[in-house]
Specification:
408 residues, alpha/beta, binds magnesium ion, globular, 4-stranded mixed sheet, 18 helices
């Protein structure tokens, strides 16, 4: 394993720091690290892992980092171009743990450089769609899932003789902190309530996405694109315990599931060692201490995210990019972020003093309105470029922003 080179994008985040724990335990060689603005943590990481290059998307923070690590051989790049340059450095594997659409261009750069992609940044597949899948095909690189549900499906598909033998993919969802609440209760929930996830400790954006269930909508689209199955053959079930990470049902009605403690280091490591399995620094799953494992269908009326994801896929064109962009902006507004505040999204001290700019239930309404406007006014089925995806992302964000002060 030691000769394999690795680049981690988003190394200061929840997935990024866990990926570094795996890197440390496996003794992998890191060639590049990137983050948004956290110069202090990236400095520590550079001192420990000695990558040849590092980048911060925030130019000012990059200038600060350059001074901090002037005594090391690591070259520091700045801005989103700097991040993309690191992504394209030609490492054997590029693990993309950037949050949001900012991860799309780096993924494309890494694929173009012939690197295998370990993908946590689901927004890459949801917004980028066929741009990404076609590039992966053309360059013959591997696209390895890091998302726990998709890793579970990928694991349950090992040994699958042919695509026709798969009947259904079953994605599990924890249901988040608001599972079982009534509409009246959801009208009063706050950002602080949404940030209390029952089973997983994650970045702020995905934690809110879990509360709204838009995370599962994004994952449904991600599954369709990763495994090339029609959306009708991907089902979502609420599984509160987060022990069964997802399942594959075959045409003989045999169902294969992957189980484990809810710890992202397992899927991160599998993406880095595939097809090998190596010891991993996580707890073992003690089945005798698991409570009953329960499964039930999601409530599509109170949480319309999955229904809207299916509608976006049926609409085709850039509708899933609209779904993603509208969700990113609505999620930011619920987290009280103003435009341009993205670089402090993971600053928990800062987060605690923010106030929601929209109510929880408004998030889904705004995304539905953006999808409706797109399908009626601007829909096109023809092929698209990266520029088209970024333009429609901007349009969806501006649409949500402009409607956000409207009636709830
Ligand atoms: P975090 O918010 O914890 O981390 C995001 C990382 O991206 C940080 O390193 C951040 O840097 C960096 N970043 C932010 N903005 C930019 C930008 N504009 N350009 C470059 N880098 C940027 O997120 P998570 O780790 O929770 O999630 C990362 C991705 O993984 C998401 O797509 C999420 O959906 C997915 N995922 C996460 C899971 C989890 O358990 N956390 C599980 C499954 C999937 P800085 O710290 O400097 O802001
Ligand atoms: Mg997931």
């Amino acid at each position: 394993m030691t000769e394999k080179t690795l680049c981690i994008l988003g190394s200061t985040g929840s997935i990024g720091t866990q990926a570094l724990e795996v890197t440390r335990s496996l003794g992998l060689r890191l060639t590049a690290l990137t983050a948004g603005s956290n110069a202090a943590l990236l400095e520590d990481q550079i001192r420990e892992f000695a990558p040849s290059v590092a980048a911060l998307a925030d130019e000012k923070a990059a200038a600060d980092l350059r001074v901090r690590v002037a005594d090391t051989p690591t070259k520091v790049l700045a801005g989103s171009d700097g991040v993309a340059e690191c992504a394209g450095c030609g490492a054997n594997t590029v693990l993309n743990a950037i949050v949001g659409i900012a991860g799309l261009e780096p993924t494309l750069r890494a694929i173009a450089a012939g690197s295998d992609i370990a993908l946590a940044n689901k927004e890459t597949l949801v917004a980028g769609g066929s741009l990404v899948t076609a590039a992966v095909h053309e360059k013959g690189v591997r696209l390895l899932p890091v998302d726990s549900e998709h890793s579970a499906i990928f694991q349950a598909l090992q040994g699958c003789p042919s695509p026709e033998s798969v009947k259904r993919l079953i994605l599990t969802a924890s249901g988040g902190p608001f599972f079982g609440k009534t509409r009246a209760e959801l009208q009063r929930v706050t950002l602080a309530d949404a940030l209390k996830h029952p089973n997983w400790s994650m970045g702020a954006k995905i934690t809110v996405d879990s509360a709204t269930m838009f995370n599962k909508g994004l994952e449904l689209i991600e599954a369709v694109r990763l495994f090339n199955v029609p959306a009708e053959r991907v089902e979502v079930l609420i599984h509160r315990q987060s022990v069964v990470h997802s399942l594959v049902e075959y045409r003989d009605n045999s169902v294969i599931a992957q189980l484990g403690v809810p710890d992202m280091k397992i899927p991160i490591q599998y993406a880095l060692t595939y097809p090998e399995r190596l010891p991993c620094p996580v707890q073992t799953l003690d089945l005798t201490r698991c409570a009953a494992l329960t499964f039930e269908p999601p409530d599509d009326e109170l949480f319309p995210a999955i229904k809207l994801a299916r509608a976006a896929m049926r609409a085709g064109g850039l509708a899933t990019a609209v779904y993603n962009g509208a969700n990113e902006r609505a999620n930011e507004l619920f987290r009280g972020e103003h435009d341009g505040a993205a670089f402090h999204a993971t600053d928990s001290a800062d987060r605690s003093v923010r106030a929601e700019q929209i109510r929880f239930l408004r998030i889904a309404e705004l995304i539905e309105a953006a999808l409706c406007a797109y399908t009626h006014e601007m829909h096109t089925q023809s092929g698209y470029t990266l520029g088209d995806v970024l333009d429609i992302d901007t349009w969806a964000r501006e649409f949500v922003q402009s409607k956000s002060s409207g009636k709830e």
